[in-house]
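Take a protein:
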Amino acid sequence: MDNKLRVALIGCGDIGLRLSHELPSERYSFLGLRRSLPDVDEKTIDWVQADYLQPETLGVLKAFSPDYVVITLKPTAYTESGYQQGYEQGARNIAAALDGLSPQRIFYVSSTRVYAESAGAWVTEDSPLAQQGFAALSLITAEQTMVQTGLPLTIVRFAGIYDGRAQFYLNRMKQGLWSSSEPEIFTNRIHRDDCSGFLAHLIRLSQAGEPLASIYNGSDGAPATRYEIERHLAARAGLNPPETVSVDGELQEHKRIDSSRLIASGYQLKFPSYQDGYQ
């Protein structure tokens, strides 16, 4: 076997693919585990058809003996049972498959949805977790399952992940859906390239022997209201906001994500705000 560091990407989708481009292929080898093989000619990843909901398919991890494991789960459906199956059962199956292995570190991708805050206050990694809501509770349970493995673990809670195309907002505005300026309802985000970039940064820090936190908020740290984002994009697209908005106070539960810990790690955001990221 070569001397490359082995990275297992469980649930390998867009973030895993981008991560494989962030780290040099001369030093790292990647194993991508997916329910179905992708329709891409991707040379940086060795693909394996493996489903974390089917434990018998995860035996490939022992043969690969990864130095690093990056886990990205998703619900089987946007229902309570779908979240329980995708996150809770998925995490249990992966934890069992990792038993007996000794990776240098596991990186578990979670979500800022786990926080209890809903009135717009700032949230750090130490803020209280949600006590209700099936999605948040399943995310929290999955995190705890990974903690209980006892393996070196870093949880990265990403905020709203976007790719820069702004289609969600543009489509809404073209349909006549515009948000009100009051009350201020904040949104949080991080560009997909910063998701993969930050994970690669953490792997590099680990390799350098630098201490890592157990939890990071993966956000650009620049919360903005939907009203502000809409007006910015409308000006760029030549759309004229109506005098009277049609969606008033749509998102009532909100928070502002503090990313000070991410910045303190030395990572430099490629897209520090939505003005930089939306094309």
